[in-house]
Every structure is written in structure tokens, then in C-alpha cells.
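Worked Example 4.2. Consider the chain below.
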Amino acid sequence: MRVLVVEDEQLLADAVATGLRREAMAVDVVYDGAAALERIAVNDYDVVVLDRDLPLVHGDDVCRKIVELGIPTRVLMLTASGDVSDRVEGLEIGADDYLPKPFAFSELIARVRALGRRTTVALPPVLERAGIKLDPNRREVFRDGREIQLAPKEFAVLEVLMRSEGAVVSAEQLLEKAWDENTDPFTNVVRVTVMTLRRKLGEPAVIVTVPGSGYRI
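Applying the procedure from the previous section yields the following C-alpha cells:
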């Protein structure tokens, strides 16, 4: 899952991004509304965590622009105000969910994951394919009943492949979904991660390389 965090309080923004990355999400961070619009124009995000009171371009206007462009990105709006009227207004603008500050990080994670599921065809909470069970919420992976410990990026790549339900996923798509914008597009990190993932999942191999196209399970 790829997430954009838009928050002008830099310490909070960076802390949220760090926490989301620990949950195997690819996260980009910006600190004002103008930068958010620039990122949204060039990158595909599953979820935007959007502070309402932003400099340069207000969060409300960022949300309106997402709706106007018909982008399938889901918006989780943050605000320091907990008034019901503010929450209603935010939802009427086009936000998909609303979370007042201060918030429990576990709730933020749950809401981001719930919104991320809405950007794709509905799938069961626990993904199962080729003897593999992947639970995104518990961050657990089992193969034939054996638990497998994965690094965050390995987990993210496996989740993308599992969600594709047998369709081929290109290296570019994996790079876009599992890494942030600071990753060198010419890096071999996808190939190396897939190799490590294959080794950890064991035999027989379930990740198939489709020459010239990508990978599938």
C-alpha cells in the first residue's frame, strides 16, 4: 500500500510516516498543501493522510481537487478540532474518513488499512493463495502452517502479489506500491527482494517470474 502523509507539523508527519513504514507501507511525506497537489499529480496513492489546516493550499482544497480529478485515492482527514460540525463538513467536502487530533496510532493504522482496502476489489481480511496465508493486520505470514518472518519490504511485496490474485505484477508496479518516491527507479531492489522472499518462502517456489513482464503467485 502506498500512502501520502500531508501534515505541516513536521515532527508529527515524520513520526506518522515512520510508524506506517513499520507496517510495511510505502510512505511519502510533504508539509504543505501545494506540495501535496504536486505529489498527487504524479504518483498513485492508495490513501492520503491529510491534515486540514495546511499552509499554501488548505487541506479542504486539496481534498476537493482529489474529488474533482476523479482520483480513486482515499482521504483520511486529520484536524485539531473534534467538533461534530467540522467532521461533517470534512466528509461533505469528499473525505472518506475523519480522525481528530490527538489520536491513538493504532487507530490511525486501522483506519488507513480499512481505506486502503476500499481502493481495490474487496478481498477477505486474510489473503490465501498457493498454501500461503497473509494477514495484513497482524503482519503475519504462514506457509503450510509454518510461520515465516519477513522484513517490512518483503511483506509489502508479498502482499501486493497476493492481492493481484494471480495477475502479473511488473517490477515498476512493485516499486511504486512498496517503496517511496526517494527510491532510485533504476535500482535492482525489487529483484533482490523477490529473491530473498523466494528463499524465505521455501520450496516449491510460488513466485513465478514472467520474462519481460514481472512476477505472479
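The chain is about 40% helix and 20% strand. The radius of gyration is 18 Å. Compare this with Example 4.1 before moving on.
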